[in-house]
Amino acid sequence: MVCPCCFTIPSVIIKLLATASALSYGQRFLTKNSNKWVRRISFGITLIISLILVGIGLFLLVLANNNDLRSRGFANFCAMQNLKDGGPMNEVRCAILNEADISGKVLEFGPGPGTNFKCFVNSTSIDEYVGVEPNTYFKEEMMREKEKRGLTFPLDFAPLRGEDYVDVMSESFDVVILTHVLCSVDSVETVLANAERALKPGGKMIIMEHKTAGQGTKLKMFQEVVGPIFNIIGNGCKVLDMTKIIESYLGNRFSVQLDEFEAPLPAFPLLFARPHVKGVATKK
Question: Parallel, antiparallel, or unpaired: how do β-strands 275-283 and 199-210 relate?
């Protein structure tokens, strides 16, 4: 449901509607001295583009003000993507998880529909798994994915934001997994603090996140354009300088090994998310 007292109009929606209005006005102004066929053709093209922009704006407006619809839609999208086995992105994902030798008690922030479970198929060394996931629409998909992969470890679903997961016993987990989650939290530092507190000394934090492109690049400008839109449809996801944030926060308390790379994601609709960082941070 939409909360009347919380109704907001994100700036990206105002820009889309303003662009549609400007196109309509500009078309009439620029073609007023043209022949009727030029005016009709340009009017038709402008009308189609304007209607598309207005439609996108209204769609984003509904999503921005309906948390339940946004959460359910995002869960369905992620579940559909998770059905695709293989592929270069899954190879990257599983490579970093397998190299880290996931074992013992495992805590994952933002597991979604169990996206990483496909990488645990040949692992029998996970004793316990806790998934901290605020989007409860993912729970059923996660349980289904666990059964599909034949995984036998005990699974505890914690329907909480990563910032709110504070009741866990300190230094009780061997591994913390953070893949494609830090972009959508309200405070990256708070989630990292909870992950740090949960980890045993010598425990490993597995990280893979998308990040900002290089300053001044065309991709960086593209990220700035599509970022506000993806923030709405991506359930709060933001484009951040993850490498800098992670290294700055973990500091000397961890042995941090991070590598930046271009993720093998499709140009549409994820070109903006290709810049990635991955690695392992070991608690000292």
Answer: antiparallel
**Pairing mode of beta strands 275-283, 254-262:** antiparallel
User: Using CA atoms, how far apart are residues 281 and 196, in angstroms rounded to an integer?
Assistant: 10
Q: Regarding beta strands 199-210 and 173-179, do their DSSP bridges make them parallel or antiparallel, or are they unpaired? A: parallel
Mean pLDDT in residue range 107-122: 93
pTM greater than 0.70: yes
Residue that has been written with the tokens 């992670």 in this structure: 246
Contacts for 258 with CB less than 8 Å, ≥ 6 apart: 207, 243, 246, 247, 277, 278, 279, 281
What number is the average pLDDT over the span 198-211?
A: 96
Round to the nearest angstrom and report the end-to-end CA distance of the chain: 46
* DSSP characters over the chain: ---GGG----HHHHHHHHHHHHHHHHHHHHTTTS-HHHHHHHHHHHHHHHHHHHHHHHHHHHHHT-HHHHHHHHHHHHHHHHT---SHHHHHHHHHHHHTT--EEEEEE--TTTGGGGGGTT---EEEEEEE-S-TTHHHHHHHHHHHTT--S-EEEE-S-GGG---SPTT-EEEEEEES-GGGSS-HHHHHHHHHHHEEEEEEEEEEEE----TT-HHHHHHHHHHHHHHHHTTS-----HHHHHHHHHGGGEEEEEEEEE----HHHHGGG-EEEEEEEEE-
**One-letter amino acid for residue 115 of the chain:** T
